[in-house]
Amino acid sequence: MPTKKIEEAEEVTRCPECNSGHLSFDYERGELICEECGLVLTDQMIDQGPEWRAFDVEQGEKRARTGAPMTYTIHDKGLSTTIGWKNKDSYGKSIPTRNRAQLYRLRKWQRRIRVSNATERNLAFALSELDRMASGMGLPRNVRETAAMVYRKAVNKNLIRGRSIEGVVAASLYAACRQCNVPRTLDEIANSSRVGRKEIGRTYRFMTRELKLKLMPTKPQDYVSRFCSELKLTGEVQSRAVEILKEAQDKELTSGPDPPASPRRRSTSRPSCATSAARSARSPTWQA
Fold first, then answer.
1. Where are the domains positioned within the chain?
2. Which of 8, 34, 118, 219 could disulfide-pair with 15, CB 3.0 to 4.6 Å?
3. Average pLDDT, 10 consecutive residues per value, the chain (288 residues)
4. According to the model, what pLDDT value does residue 259 have?
5. In this structure, are residues 30 and 43 in contact, taking their beta carbons and an 8 Å threshold?
6. Rounded distance, CA 170 to CA 174, Å?
7. What are phi and psi of 24, to 5 degrees?
8. What is the pLDDT of residue 264?
């Protein structure tokens, strides 16, 4: 059967004979075959996988030669190299004593050149502070990446000048929480940072205006699951709390000031809905 030579087999999505999209790779023969008509689309394919085999996860991690993925939470995006503290070479053999002083100097200069100018020093300090705050609040990885991206945009537009680094980091983290639908109040952000709530709110409004961040206002329903989880309430109570909030919205009882301007008012109203739901569901939690 004649074969069709294709330079890049990854771009082939359909069979040229029967127009079928059911294609399969035969890694033993190195062929791309149509499952409908049996046409061999290409042969002598190159195996892109590793040349070694691993029989468990630990063995695969030891044999892998790739580094960590790129991340925006590190000032150099995690692309720089590091010299380990162990005095061993790539084969696991100990480095002679006469060469350890040279290795120490290389390690010291490697740490220095990772932060070469003021902008990188700013990023290094700010992103370490961001990681500390996010770890203290237990925020997921996607929120940290988004907050790092927001802060980098603020640095590129020179919005940091005249403002504290901690305030801009806290505002970036607050914006990332709202963008990733993991809402946190300004009081929670302020408790994890060294900046007051008013300064965080003022910096947040300035950044959203300058960076043109389109963020929808948080809804009371976004906080119900977290409050119910902290109060160890049942799913029935959580559903009842959502119903109460929906009825309150229908009667326009939840409208008020802008959410960033009144986090304390929001944080005190939502537990009351959970309490009402617990009472209506006759849960023993509200009695405690």
1. 9-42, 118-211, 221-280
2. 34
3. 40 81 82 87 76 78 73 83 77 82 86 80 90 91 93 91 90 92 88 89 92 82 81 84 84 61 43 60 51
4. 42
5. yes
6. 6
7. -135, 150
8. 42
Residue with tokens 């990854």: 10
Question: What pLDDT score does 258 carry?
Answer: 46
The pTM of the full predicted model, rounded to 2 decimals, is 0.63
Measured between its terminal Cα atoms, the distance across the chain in Å is 79
Q: In residues, how long is the chain?
A: 288
Is there a shared CATH topology between the 118-211 domain and the 221-280 domain?
A: yes
Half-sphere exposure at residue 172, Cβ-oriented, CA atoms within 13 angstroms: 29
Q: What is the DSSP string of 31-97?
A: EEEETTT--EEE-SPPP-S-SS--SSHHHHHHH----PPP-TTSTTTT-S----SS-B-TTSPBPPH
pLDDT at res. 256: 61
Distance of alpha carbon 272 from alpha carbon 76, whole angstroms: 45
- Give me Rg for the CA atoms of the chain: 28
CA distances (Å), origin 47, targets 28, 37, 167: 10, 24, 50
Q: Domain 9-42 - what CATH class?
A: mainly beta
CB atoms within 10 A of CB 168: 27
**Partners of 170 in beta bridges:** none
Residue type at 31 in one-letter notation:
E
Highest CATH level, class, for 118-211: mainly alpha
Q: Please, where are the H alpha helices in the chain?
A: 57-63, 97-114, 118-137, 141-156, 165-179, 186-192, 197-211, 221-230, 235-250, 263-280
What 3-state class would DSSP assign to 17? coil
pLDDT at residue 280, as a whole number? 62
CATH top-level class for 221-280?
Answer: mainly alpha
